[in-house]
Amino acid sequence: MKLAVLLALATSVFLSTSHAATYVVTVAGLGGEKEFEDRFSGWAKDVEKLYQGSDVKAETFYGAKATREKLLASLTAIAGQAQAADSVIVMLIGHGTFVGSEYQFNLPGPAVSGAQLASGLDKIPARQHMMVRMHEA
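Structure (tokenized):
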């Protein structure tokens, strides 16, 4: 439930900026063990419920659909729609690793790198970007 409170507060700050659009992309990555997979997917589903029926343009990926390709395609789609006054929240729920000196977020199939995430976000003209990474130790 801490997650819901955090997101509700963050989104309310973003929504208070006039009539601009807010985009939320939530991705539950690999957990390594069934307990973590279930927990991460559950959190993603909780976030998804927060935005149902709202004006927020939310997209949620978990399980086999939480791939690098889907995440990056979502960021590309937002880049094609977002305006300068809009806001974007990207929430990554799961585990990351370092390969050499590069951060990667673990997803089914190839992981997504920090550089790939930054590149996708850099193309979005929205004024406010917020990246949240949640995990269970």
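The radius of gyration is 14 Å. The mean pLDDT is 86.
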